[in-house]
Design a protein that fits this description.
- The protein is mostly helical.
- The chain contains four helices and no strands.
- It is flat and about 65 Å long.
- The mean pLDDT is 85.
């Protein structure tokens, strides 16, 4: 393992635990505030979830940058190539579905409610985003593996 990665792993665990503690404290405060009528229950839930999401994404971005600067040049190049070629390939496949969704016949399709059993526009948008991210990650994995196999 590259020098300094154990520190990143330890900081990752500490950061995740800290976020979990903050979310529990925030959730408890939100429940108390909503029970006393200070805020609406939905607003309190949204505030807790939004805070958790922002903290998790900020931590993920920071850890990704910290990890990327500590890996060697070959690994860095493999990940850059995988994200560019694999991610772009997955995005192109997803783009085909986006274009097909804009046709008049797509309006007659009955799609299953994949996002927590919901069938509202926000749930479909979230399902599409997860689907697109999945295609990009599949492309990333394929190109990353190919990159390393080609250099063995």
């Amino acid at each position: 393992m590259a020098k300094g990665l154990w520190k990143i792993l330890a900081l990752s665990l500490a950061g995740i635990l800290a976020i979990m503690v903050l979310v529990v404290i925030g959730a408890a405060a939100a429940v108390l505030a909503s029970e006393r009528g200070l805020v609406q229950k939905d607003a309190a839930l949204l505030a807790v979830v939004a805070t958790m999401a922002v903290l998790m994404m900020a931590l993920s971005l920071w850890l990704g940058v910290a990890w990327m600067v500590r890996i060697d040049e070959a690994a860095r190049e493999a990940h850059k190539a995988a994200w560019f070629y694999g991610g772009s390939g997955g995005l192109a496949v997803g783009g085909v579905f986006i274009i097909l969704a804009s046709t008049p016949t797509a309006g007659r399709l009955q799609l299953p409610a994949w996002f927590a059993g919901r069938a509202d526009p926000a749930a479909y948008a979230a399902s599409g985003a997860v689907g697109l991210m999945t295609l990009m990650l599949i492309g990333y994995g394929v190109v990353w593996g190919w990159w390393w196999l080609a250099r063995r």
